[in-house]
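Think of the structure tokens as a kind of shorthand, similar to the way a musician reads notation: each symbol stands for something richer, in this case the local conformation of the backbone. In the example below we present two proteins back to back. Begin with the first one, reading the sequence and then the tokens, and try to describe in your own words what changes along the chain.
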Amino acid sequence: MGRDEAISEALDATSTRLYFSMGHVSNDPAELMKGGPANCIGYSALCASLLVAQLERSGMDDRYTVEHVIGKLYIGRWSLHTMFHGPFWKDHDIVRITDRRNGQRVYVDPALFDAVGIGRVTGP
């Protein structure tokens, strides 16, 4: 299994287990493994955890770093965060995968993948 397959499996498994909620939810990947409600923090935490495990099983964990990171959600130059008010919408959590050999980064958004099927996003 390569990196892209591991990412696809982690996104699919996260989407299968979770459904989006703005309520009080867990962000603990061990708890979310059972399934249930989550926000973008929980989606990213579970996806990162699943991806790390898949990379370890495939012997690729020495090559890739997987990080749950906080950013903003844009369509072009337009910030989606300007549409909403309140602290819940101030930022957005995604997963960054960095290739230690060449520094190449891939960004995935498990919550967006679950909502509309877009898994890969761009980042800084």
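Once you have a description of the first chain, move to the second and do the same.
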Amino acid sequence: MSTLKNLNDIHLSTEQIESVNTSLAALETALSAKVSNLSSEERRKYGSISEQNKLFVNKVNDYATGQPVLRSPDVDWEEFAKDFNSRTVLEATIARSENLLTGISNAKTLHDYDNYQAALDDYAYTNYKTYEI
């Protein structure tokens, strides 16, 4: 049976592995103060704003920035701006991280496939040798 072999023959060097681990540690350190572990109850309580609500928040931010005289005095606009900026940065960071994760996951899938095919070949060879004796 002919199968594709070595779908991913690009391997990380020891230096690259060290660089990745160092970079991940630096990223974890940089974000440690920002990372929140929500319980499932808290996740349900706070949820995630929908795309429509994101548009609403963006529009309020546009008005608050462009026409400050219309701002409600009941809102802490300094905190609103900080939350808005943090949200924007984290959203972009998540998108970049998800793209990296997808690429890494795809590379791992190819290595898994290569390992599995090699294991099947070895098993077939062992089976063949068993009956050859």
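Compare your description with these statements about the second chain. The chain is about 75% helix and 0% strand.
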